[in-house]
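Tokens in:
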């Protein structure tokens, strides 16, 4: 039997939660800069009485927007270095703990990504990921190789993609902002249009705990362009975040009053 909540199977699964209106959305956002405008837009408040273990840097904002309870969680700042805890390790832990504590109907992983112009991505584009996979988990042993890549279809949302006119593409995830030759080959094999540092890890947790996940990724840098990635990323981060948050708001407006099976 196909697993529920993945690809088209979720909408067809007959599971009750796929047919009742979505009332609880969890945003997982890696960087504070990406999250802040959305926190303001949805008028969310930081929750000091953390549902998370004592001492973790994870931050939660919550509130009600239209008919939905919204939580935005961020991995927060590294306790030693003070920078955002980007990457798959923090994202996985945060996703697991947040699902356990908040029991969301739907997760939205919103964030920035590198885009490939050869696959039609430009700065400021906002993509909905159709598939996710890893590009830095090389295990050259039969079957372990497939496990490492961890390719999976995302929760299918054809109505959302059409209504909001979002670009749709495959997302490849790794723990580096830059791209070595081995990663590049894997990204090509994954047929990815966009590249991030959290998506496939959050998809894995969603799959484990049977929660559908949408991936909304805004392009800050052109990976196959001429500019150094880190420079282009920092240069475009604030402007592109505005596009991301606008798209995220439209997504929530579209979701409001609908069930997962209507997306
Ligand atoms: N986030 C934004 N740009 C990125 C890139 N080039 N690689 C991974 N994550 C990113």
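Residues out:
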């Amino acid at each position: 039997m196909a697993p529920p909540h993945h690809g088209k199977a979720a909408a067809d699964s007959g599971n009750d939660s796929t047919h009742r209106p979505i009332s609880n959305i969890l945003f997982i956002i890696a960087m504070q800069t990406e999250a802040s405008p959305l926190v303001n837009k949805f008028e969310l408040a930081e929750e000091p009485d953390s549902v998370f273990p004592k001492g973790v840097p994870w931050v939660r904002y919550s509130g009600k927007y239209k008919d939905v309870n919204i939580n935005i969680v961020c991995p927060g700042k590294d306790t030693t270095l003070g920078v955002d805890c980007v990457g798959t390790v923090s994202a996985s832990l945060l996703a697991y703990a947040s699902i356990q504590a908040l029991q969301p109907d739907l997760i939205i992983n919103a964030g920035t990504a590198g885009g490939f112009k050869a696959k039609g991505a430009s700065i400021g584009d906002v993509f909905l990921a159709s598939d996710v996979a890893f590009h830095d988990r090389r295990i050259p042993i039969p079957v372990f190789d497939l496990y490492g890549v961890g390719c999976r279809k995302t929760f299918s949302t054809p109505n959302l993609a059409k209504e909001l006119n979002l670009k749709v593409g495959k997302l490849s995830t790794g723990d580096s902002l830059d791209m070595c030759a081995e990663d590049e080959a894997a990204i090509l094999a994954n047929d990815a249009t966009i590249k991030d540092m959290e998506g496939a890890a959050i998809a894995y947790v969603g799959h484990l705990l049977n929660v559908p996940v949408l991936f909304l990724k805004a392009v800050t840098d052109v990976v196959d362009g001429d500019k150094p990635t880190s420079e282009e990323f920092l240069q475009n981060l604030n402007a592109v975040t505005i596009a991301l948050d606008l798209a995220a708001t439209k997504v929530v407006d579209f979701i409001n009053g609908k069930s997962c099976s209507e997306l």
